[in-house]
Amino acid sequence: MHPLVVALAALLPLTAAAQDAPATKDPVALDTLQVTAQRRVENAKDVPVSISAIQGEKLDVLGSAGDDIRFLSARVPSLNIESSYGRAFPRFYIRGLGNTDFDLNASQPVSLVYDDVVQESPLLKGFPLFDLAGVEVLRGPQGTLFGRNTPAGVVKFDSARPSQDADGYIKVAYGSYNTWNTQGAYGGPLTDRWSARVSALYQRRDDWVTNTRQGAPAQGFEGYDEAAARVQFLYEGDDVEALFNLHKRKLNGTARLFRANILKPGTNQLVENFDRDEVSTDGQNFSDLETWGGSARLKWDLGRVTLHSITGYETAESLNHGDIDGGYGASFLGAGNYGPGNIPFASESADGLPHHRQWTQEFRVESNEWGRFDWQAGVFYFDEDVTIDSFNYDSLTPGNPQTGHAVQQQRNKAWAAFASGDFDVTERFKLRGGVRYTQDKKDFSASVLQAVPFGTPVSGPYIAKTDVNDVSWDLSGVYQITDNLNAYASVAKGFRAPSIQGRLAFGGVSQADSEKVISYEAGIKADLFDRRARLGFNVFRYNVDGQQLIAVGGTNNTATLLNADKTLGQGAELDFEAYLTDHVLLTLGSSYNDTEIKDKDLAVAICGGGCTITDPTTVIDGGTYALVNGNPLPQAPKWIHNLTLRAGFPVNDASEFYVYTDWAYRSDVNFFLYESPEFRSRSSLEGGLRLGYNWDYGQYDVAVYGRNLTDQVRVVGAIDFNNLTGFLNEPRTFGLEFTAKF
Fold first, then answer.
1. Could you give phi then psi for residue 505, rounded to 5 degrees?
2. Which of 188, 331, 445, 585 has the highest CB neighbour count under 10 A?
3. CA distance 105 to 86
4. Phi, psi (5° rounding) for residue 669?
5. What is the torsion angle, in degrees rounded to the nearest 10, for the CA atoms of residue 9, residue 10, residue 12 and residue 18?
């Protein structure tokens, strides 16, 4: 029996008990789900987009242990999130489309939009989640209204806004590994026109993984110290509104912890007597990241139309240093006192972002209830400038001296013009369509300033440029079958501009051309049983021409951009939410994604660390390459299922005990483009449980919680150029949390 079914069956007695609790006077119903998927507030049922939203208590519960943004992975259909940098650099995948590239100027086909400002750099995408109004995940191409790098979809975050009603909260949680998760916010009026809101978060965890190498310094791993804050000012005039936002993040701790030879050759099983609390390594490990930014969102009501202006500025600075071989004792010639297991050669490196800045500007005009036809149109400008340092170190010499340094610089400018409209053909049938013209230009240079042993000599600069334009579009229709049931169908074209990489320490500059995707989707959205339940279901199919992929690792530890001729994807998605009783709320999500690379000539370098290649191979210039035609995309689970169940047990009108459990299942995934049993992650089922009591009409709440209850250990990513090195999911944690609202 499927483990998720077992979990649900175990919870049925809770629902029965809650059914016996006193009912409220009026039957409960789900609130109307308001979303901004089309850049204006609408009922989610009327939007022809596959969309999932996470709000309120559910968002708080999932993040209760102080985990970073990756806690959203598999919590909605078709969404996967992973990172080889830990908390600093999340990589998003929707419907299997994503980017495993670990370079600091990597573009992703999933766009992250925070308070209406696109976060392009991967280091900006991990801003902590606190004091939010909600999260929306839009699946499928969103290139018309959201623009750049959205062929897979958009993950959209909206902060709680200031208002004239004073309110706030304080939350304090303490848990395993001396973990603290504290946050709070307060907002209210400054004058009758101005209001403000201040939000802050502080999270920390002790190092809990011990370095067992003999003679190693007393340094632990996997701890972190993170702080973030946001301040907002809102002006509300008669015909104008202005919302100003300043935010900052600071993170320091250990980088992603690589563990050498933790996989049994020929399998994806962990080695015997594996202990996740220990590691043996001879390299340094730390992660420092600081970001800050601001935005100004202005709105003028001009009568027949409303004019919007959104100005955003973001900057980041980081240095992430790790022992890539995951062990100790190797020499550069492959001879030495290996440990743990065979370490063919030492590898220790760091990537830094000494300079980064991003400017964005959008002007948008939208109609104000023009009857059967409404529209919006605008222009968008993007300007990003980055400098990337790549360092190599010698783990075998005391002090880990620097033995290599390469630098990349990239300037990316883009502008776009867009328009979108919807027309009420009849009272029940609405057509929507949009178009966007984009021009994107990149200027790139890279140089080797200090040669890496057995790598590229001092050389450069290597220059690369791209300058492309493209037209994205979408067309959809929504038909209201009944007052509570809508059906929709859509077709959309997405686009991602060319990418350039320069991993010069062990290779050269590589470039991938534009990718374009055509996506078809049809589905239904319904309110059921007097709005006690809500259902969304859709099927989809997409075709990517020239998908940008990256072949990482191999015997030479390279990262090479390339384009696949075609990629096909198809599947189905389900969102369901229902009050089973007046005090029992159930949510279910499920997705099936079938992806396939279609390129009979596409060959990538195979692993250099003893893995088992199951793909056909070919020899190119004396090297062995895997032919990946027919393989699924990396980090693309075929199945995702998720469930939450909340059962309340009222004590009186103002207080209740409650039980909240959540479970997320993700089927197995490949880590790389080629197929290998060692580098195919096992399926994962992680669950959480929360037992709490709230009183004074929900103003106060105290709860105990557990995350990863079954203490499941899974390899969630790997390094393939040296040995069977992997990194793991988050450990099981327990804690206590108190929340006060005011």
1. -55, -35
2. 585
3. 17
4. -140, 150
5. -160
Can you read off the two tokens belonging to residue 695?
Answer: 């009183």
Element (H, E) at 553: strand 533-553
Amino acid of residue 581: T
Contacts of 12 (CB under 8 A, 6+ apart): none
CA-to-CA distance for 421 and 436, rounded, in angstroms? 12
Pairing of strands 278-279, 209-211: parallel
The 8-class DSSP code of residue 13 comes to H
Find, among 306, 275, 267, 312, the residue nearest to 293 by Cα: 312
pLDDT in tens, 307-355: 999 999 999 999 999 998 888 876 544 444 456 777 878 888 999 999 9
With vertex at residue 461, the alpha carbon angle to CA 457 and CA 463, rounded to the nearest 5 degrees, is: 130
Q: Which of 290, 232, 250, 227 is nearest to 116 (CA)?
A: 232
- Helix-, strand-, coil-residue percentages of the chain, each rounded to 5: 5, 60, 35
Residue pair 684/571 in contact (Cβ under 8 Å)? The answer is no
DSSP 281-309: --S--EEEEEEEEEEEEEEEE-SSEEEEE
Tens-place pLDDT, residues 677-693 = 999 999 999 999 999 99
Q: Are 290 and 334 in contact (CB under 8 A)?
A: no
Task: Look at the block and give the residue holding tokens 């919302």.
Answer: 243
Secondary structure class of 135 (helix, strand, coil): strand
CA atoms within 13 A on the CB side of 508: 6
Identity at 502, one-letter amino acid code = G
9: pLDDT strictly greater than 50: no
- Tell me how far apart the alpha carbons of residues 495 and 518 are, in angstroms, rounded to a whole number: 9
Q: 348 with 394: CB under 8 angstroms?
A: yes
Spatial distance between the Cα atoms of 518 and 79, rounded to a whole number of angstroms: 19
Q: Cite the beta strand spans of 254-401 per DSSP E.
A: 278-279, 286-301, 305-323, 348-367, 373-393
Asked whether residue 3 carries a pLDDT value surpassing 60, the answer given is no
pLDDT tens-digit map of 63-109: 999 999 999 999 999 999 999 998 999 999 999 999 998 889 999 99
C-alpha dist (Å) from residue 645 to 55, 264, 581, 658, 738: 15, 37, 12, 10, 21
Burial of 278 by CB count in 10 Å (0-12 exposed, 13-18 middle, 19+ buried)? Answer: middle
Rg for the chain (alpha carbons), in Å? 26
Mapped to the 3 state alphabet, what secondary structure does 153-189 carry? EEEEEEECCCCCCCEEEEEEEEEHHHEEEEEEEEEEE
Torsion of CA 449, 454, 457, 458, to 10 degrees: 10
Q: Give the angle 676-72-158 at the CA atoms, nearest 5°.
A: 140
Instruction: Specify the pLDDT at position 537.
Output: 98
Element (H, E) at 497: none
Cβ pair 448, 460 in contact under 8 A = yes
Q: What are phi and psi of 19, to 5 degrees?
A: -65, -30
| Tokens of residue 267, six digits | 């399998």
| SS3 sequence of 54-72 | ECHHHHHHHCCCCCCHHHH
Cα gap 200→131, rounded to integer Å: 8
Distance between start and end Cα atoms, the chain: 46
481, amino acid identity: I
Distance CA 686, CA 104 (A): 30
- 3-class DSSP state of 45: helix
Backbone angles phi, psi at 630, to 5 degrees: 90, -10
Torsion of CA 553, 554, 558, 562, to 10 degrees: -90
The structure tokens 């004396």 sit at: 622
Average pLDDT over residues 563-579: 97
The conformational region for residue 709 under phi > 0 = left, psi -120 to 50 = alpha, else beta, is: alpha
